[in-house]
Amino acid sequence: MSYVKPKFRHPKLPTNSLGYSVADYDGAISTLCAGCGHDSISAAIRNACFKSAIPPHRIAKLSGIGCSSKMPTYFLGRSHGFNSVHGRMPSVATGASLANRELTYIGVSGDGDTASIGMGQFVHLIRRNVNMTYIVANNGCYGLTKGQDSATADLGSVAKGGAVNPFDGIDLASLALLQGASFVARSFSGDKEQLEPLIRAAMAHKGFAFIDVVSPCVTFNNHAGSTKSYAETRAHVDAMQLDFIPMREEIRTQYEAGTSQTVTLHDGSVIHLQKASSDYATDDRAAAMQAIQKAEAEDKILTGLLHLDPNSQDLNQLLNLANKPLNELDKDELCPGSRVLDSINQGLR
Amino acid sequence: MKKIKGVNDFVVKFANVNGTGSASANHLFAKTIFRMGIPVSPRNIFPSNIQGLPTWYEVRVSKNGYLGRRGGVDLMVCVNPQSMEKDVASVDPGGYFLYDSTKPLPTHLKRDDITYIGIPLTQMCMQEFEVPRLQQLLKNVVYVGALAALLNMDLSMVKDLLADQFKGKEKLISSNVQALEIGYQYALENYKCPLAIRLENGNADAPHIAESEHILMNGNTAAALGAIYGGATVAAWYPITPSTSVVDAFSKYAERLRIDPGTGKRNYAIVQAEDELAAIGMVVGANWNGARAFTATSGPGLSLMSEFLGLAYFAEVPVVLINVQRSGPSTGMPTRSQQSDVLAAAYASHGDTKQVLLFPATPRECFDMTVEAFDLSERLQTPVILMSDLDLGMNDWMSPPLEWDDKYEMDRGKVLDAQGLDEAEKWGRYLDVDGDGICFRTLPGTHPDKGAYFTRGSSKNEMAVYSESGEDYVQNVDRLLRKFDTAKTYVPTPKTHPPIEVKKPKTKLKIGTLFFGTSASPSYEAVEILAEEGIPIDTMRIRAFPFHNDLDDFIHDHDLVFVIEQNRDGQMRQLIMNECQIAPDKLTSVLNYSGTPITARAIAGKIRETLNTHSADVVALRPETA
Asked: Which residue of A143, A234, A239, B567 is most buried, as measured by CB atoms within 10 A?
């Protein structure tokens, strides 16, 4: 593991439309194990924010507790971050999003943080359709407490000590679909070609965008018999490749007719999906469900954009919140004053 | 038999079945007395149930302006056969018992030291009204009519109030007035009216009441208005008795007062969370992001919120929590009042934590202190817990009117904006530049390249960089203690009143009493009762934790100090002993934890008893029968 971050940068690093180079989206050096899948996710988030030209200080990073939740330290050093309470990041993110609807919120969680202690808050976050990107770095085990099975560990997966998991794993993507999530995706930390555009699309989506990322734990869950190792995942992944073209950019790529599906987001951004082995319209929730189950039956892991609801209404809309961020309202907008209070007193006599 | 006599000074208790419409009729009775200009304090004593169980409503009429419970019952109005035996027994000798005489009173319920007043409520309603639901509901209004005659109430005022109550439902007004009148006539024709206990218009002998034109409101509504006026924009909560009506009232007023005139959109958000953990999590997230956010809960909810209270304490995020205290755990006593979360709140959470607490005693203080809680939590960057209780929160109290200074500015505390960051020589989130333990914070989204930091509960250095160094940890928690000390200079100071003059004192001991919240009103009354008996007692009402230095001085200036509170373990006494280095034998507890609010008579009795025996350190009151 490196412990010194090189400060040298190429003087001619390319910049995005705001004039930021990718280095402006860097965080502190990672303290995770060398080869950890999570570091690839951090890099993908950094690159996605750079490419989508989001000002770093207009992003807020939130996490719970665990290896996954350490990640926000390792990207976007110019953004505010909040390493909150185990399993309770959804509620903190909900409150933060209500306070200021104009920032981009990225939540990073793990399979323990989301599928066990945080399950209650996770489903309610979906139910409220909070406008945020929620990434689960899913490695099927508790890394920070040294390798216990998590609730997403697959039935029959063999732990490092040799024990076979007797329980069915929870599939968070299926759960999110069932609960009505407006954006559901799955990816693999080893597939940055797919992960980056997915994160960009998730950030452009208005509402709750969920990405379940299989992210192998090199220390405790990367051996033969584990179903979430690099080798197993690579061998079984059925990836749907995609491109994300933000609203501002001219569409240059030409796709052969019949080989792609085009999804337009509320802000005019476009996602081009390459034809995968299972082809269905991504706005069809039931078809997405079926595709996941079909892949599972064939011992495959279906990755890509699984579902997107183009008519998503986020929490701010559902609560009919003012356009101005609540944290910017001033005294005159908030405090009704003494005359109103006198009339309230009058009604209590 | 010597009948109880008294003008504008007695206790009326109503025994009803819940879900039968008695609440609004009983409120009508109390509000009429209030409108007559007579100090009155009504209290619901109700079960955790929607329909069918016994419920009581106790109305204290006190020309001297005592708004706490006195103890005892002078007139019982009993329309619940389930509880009748107990209700008959609870009337003071010489008192009165009004009952539904449609069926004869069982002979074993006859006492020869009280006066019985039978009114055939059921029979009268069956004759007068056709609709079964009205026959049931209007029984309550018939007894209010009878009481108007028996107690010399102003009947026209009752009618005016009925008209207010049913504004827009004119059909209901006429049947209610009819019920009122038949009750009134029946009492006039069958009993000598008024009784020896009676009301007289505007006969208040209470300077502190006469000073201003009072209002009648409950503490939860007042706290909700405090949140509106204090600029709260996010409320996140989970339903729990007795705090639910805080958010109900916030919602009601926000719908009226917080709609953006241009767009019709809301300048506030209310989220009913999935549980208390999420409710406070949202409050933490919103406050971290610069909105004023609050939650309201009660005992079990406070327990669930403790984890986040720890994070907010260490991460230094403002939180406003309105804790409406009740008895014990979940089932059994959620509708009964106590002051039993003092220690749980003061030291809420893991690790070394101390939380700022405010103790309101009136609806006016619920309003003022809620506004103050928002200012304090942002000034001190820490949770502030408003410690109300069921008695204050859910009952109507006479209170001075709410006042608002239009010059009020929110104290957002030490928050650096973009310009501030540019001008700051060096900024670190946990750098104590002013030496008061309070550091400068920044909000997300403020500045393109300055002021971003990572918020975490665990150890960090002054620059908010992750650290597991013991030195950094110690430096940080020592600074938090320094900040708690600074809080002393910001929180409301304790209140003392000039002592009541006693001409020939029976004791040379310097005696003091300490109390807070709803224990205050009956304590003041108890002190006056004892002053009349020749025992001078000084008072101090605690209004906040951390304690002001005046509290230490008060304790040191007295030989014997009584701490009056409503819990089993003398929690405020323990907190004082712990925080002020006071020897245990200096403080004597006066306790009540039966779930019904403490009474003046009980407090006076315990102090008298202690002074007589001068032995026990802790004197517990036996639970009263309701």
From this structure: A143
DSSP code at position A167: S
| Interface probe, candidates B404, B406, B421, chain A, greatest A C-beta count within 10 A | B404
The token pair that represents B505 in the structure block: 């004192």
Cα gap B142→B120, rounded to integer Å: 10
Dist. CA B204–CA B64, nearest whole Å: 6
The H or E element spanning position B485 is helix B470-487
Looking at A189-296, which runs of residues are DSSP E strands? 208-214, 237-239, 242-245, 260-264, 270-274
Residue A29 at interface with chain B, using a CB cutoff of 8 Å: no
Tens-digit pLDDT profile for residues B23-55: 999 999 999 999 999 999 999 988 888 888 899
CB atoms B233 and A344 under 8 Å: no
Neighbours of B400 (CB within 10 A): 17
- Name every chain B residue with its beta carbon within 8 A of the beta carbon of A334: 228, 231, 233, 258, 267
| B456: chain A residues, CB-CB within 8 Å | 82-83
End-to-end CA distance of chain B: 25
Pairwise CA distance, residues A287 & A291, whole Å: 6
3-state DSSP call for residue B6? strand
Separation CA B259–CA B323 (nearest Å): 27
Give kind and range of the element (H or E) at residue A341.
helix A338-346
B537-541 sheet: strands from edge to edge: B495-496, B537-541, B511-515, B560-565, B587-591, B618-620
Read off the tokens for A143: 């890394």
> Which chain A positions have a beta carbon within 8 Å of B454's beta carbon?
72-73, 80-83
Q: Do A81 and B454 touch (CB under 8 A)?
A: yes
- What DSSP character marks residue B238? -
Residue A142, H or E segment: strand A141-142
pLDDT band at A258 (very low <50, low <70, confident <90, very high): very low
Which domains, and CATH codes, for chain B? 6-207 (3.40.920.10), 216-399 (3.40.50.970), 495-620 (3.40.50.920)
Rounded to whole angstroms, the Cα distance separating A230 from B590 reads 68
For chain A, domains (ranges, CATH) are 22-346 (3.40.50.970)
Rounded Cα distance between A13 and A26, Å, is 13
Contact A273, A239 (CB under 8 A): no
Are A78 and B448 inside 8 Å of each other by CB?
yes
Q: Read off the pLDDT of residues B336-393 as tens digits, 9 standing for 90 and up.
A: 999 999 999 999 999 999 999 999 999 999 999 999 999 999 999 999 999 999 999 9
**Mutation choice for A interface testing from B35, B233, B371 by most A CBs within 10 A:** B233
What number is the ipTM of this complex? 0.95
Pairwise CA distance, residues A202 & A270, whole Å:
12
